[in-house]
Design a protein that fits this description.
Strand order of the largest sheet: 1-2
Shape: globular
Order of helices and strands: HEEHHHHHHHHHHHHHHHHHH
Strand content: under 5%
Structural class: mainly alpha
Number of strands: 2
Radius of gyration: 26 Å
Helix content: over 70%
């Protein structure tokens, strides 16, 4: 067939194609080709590079729920003192509150890869030093020094949120979905981490939890920082404004939220021990984290609500455990923990969105780390208050503390709204 005829034939019919000098009639597909529309999370992870850095993020995040309980079980098991174990972990928490914001500031100034990996190596060496010191019977001060070195651990959740913020800066709806996913990942790590740590420390050997956590942290961080294509660029613009000054009122809110979490955990453990169910406390407490994780993922598919609305729901649902405990029903208590947990993720997602909005440009990692530090301080304060309440009045009365802390959070949100720090229709 002449070339001119072939060309005309091909142009006249989309079913024809040319292979070399041969005219081939292609068979059209039967029926229309249908592609299933992606949901919010499908669209999120269709962005190039997001699956890779999320994989590293999840691996590195799991140890965040492992280190504390692993250290307690290891030190108490080898030294026979829960007081020493508690003091060592409390020292590490205090060191983290001081060091973490400085680490985040360095990340903002020099980039994630240049700072996060060296900081992780220091933290891993601190964990290995703790294992060696416990195992060899070194003086107690070496345990404090070793565990304090782990305070350089980067805020992996903050690093990941910063990447999403950079990638989705022009898509508020997708950014909301990403922040909901990150909060669900936080809940998942604190749900699975303690269970894995307890299993390793009891079924393998006392140091297994700490060693596994250190290996996961280093591996996950290596995978994360190697994804350079999604790393936020370091801004060369002058850094104006202080995140601490800009976020000070919001940090009070995060402190109150931390008190909710800390008082709830201690009171729940005490209540279960009182009922002779201390061995099942980890599984029962996981209900709260599971509720928060599920609610966080669901919230990511919905339109964001105002912070005031989220905290109103939180304050209402945090009364349920107190009501359930006074009924004496274990089933009602478990259901109450599940429902109470479902209020926490939407509140945290929405509160973190305010951190993003208020933090000065180029200081996002530092701003988010300050928020996390305030939460940790609140957890410590809430745990201490709950312990005193349990000793003097019993768990049933101590369950009023999470409800009171949630009510305090609501008062703070109303005050922030009244002063213009939070717009009533924000988010």
């Amino acid at each position: 067939m002449p070339a001119t005829t072939t060309t005309a034939a091909v142009a006249a019919s989309p079913r024809m194609t040319v292979t070399g000098t041969t005219l081939v009639i292609a068979t059209p597909p039967r029926g229309p080709v249908r592609t299933r529309p992606r949901g919010p999370y499908g669209r999120l992870f269709a962005i190039p590079g997001t699956r890779a850095f999320t994989a590293g993020n999840l691996i590195a995040r799991l140890p965040m729920g492992m280190f504390g309980i692993s250290a307690v079980m290891m030190i108490a098991g080898q030294r026979g003192s829960y007081a020493l174990a508690g003091a060592v972990t409390a020292t590490g928490l205090a060191a983290t509150a001081l060091v973490a914001p400085w680490t985040a500031r360095l990340v903002d100034r020099h980039g994630q890869a240049r700072i996060a990996l060296p900081a992780t190596l220091i933290a891993v060496l601190g964990s290995l030093s703790l294992v060696v010191c416990v195992r060899t019977g070194a003086p107690a001060w070496t345990l404090f020094a070793s565990y304090a070195a782990t305070a350089t651990t980067p805020n992996i959740g903050g690093l990941s949120r910063a990447r999403w913020t950079h990638l989705l800066r022009d898509s508020p709806a997708a950014h909301h979905t990403a922040m909901a996913f990150e909060q669900a990942a936080d809940e998942l790590s604190f749900m699975l981490g303690p269970v894995l740590a307890a299993l390793l420390c009891t079924a393998v050997f006392p140091e297994a939890g700490t060693l596994t956590g250190a290996a996961l942290l280093l591996t996950g961080m290596l995978v994360f920082v190697c994804q350079r294509s999604t790393e936020p660029p370091v801004t060369t613009a002058p850094r104006r404004g202080s995140p601490l000054r800009a976020l000070a009122p919001m940090l009070l809110l995060f402190l109150a939220l931390g008190m909710v979490f800390g008082s709830m955990e201690v009171t729940s453990v005490a209540h279960l021990e009182q009922r002779g169910l201390g061995a099942a406390s980890g599984l029962v407490l996981a209900l709260q984290a599971a509720g928060s994780c599920a609610a966080g993922l669901l919230y990511g598919t919905l339109r964001p609500r105002s912070l005031r609305a989220c905290v109103v729901v939180l304050a209402a649902l945090m009364t349920l455990p107190w009501v359930a405990v006074n009924t004496g029903s274990l089933a009602a208590f478990c259901a109450a923990l599940l429902l109470a947990g479902m209020a926490t993720a939407p509140t945290m997602v929405t509160a973190m969105s305010r951190v993003h909005a208020l933090t000065p440009e180029g200081r996002l990692n530092e701003g988010m780390t300050l928020a996390v530090t305030a939460i940790l301080a609140g957890i410590a304060a809430g745990s201490a208050c709950a312990g005193l309440a349990v000793d003097h009045a019993g768990p049933a009365v101590a369950y009023l503390l999470p409800a009171a802390a949630a009510l305090l959070a609501l008062v703070l949100v109303l005050a922030l709204t009244a002063t213009g720090r939070i717009h009533p229709a924000a988010e």
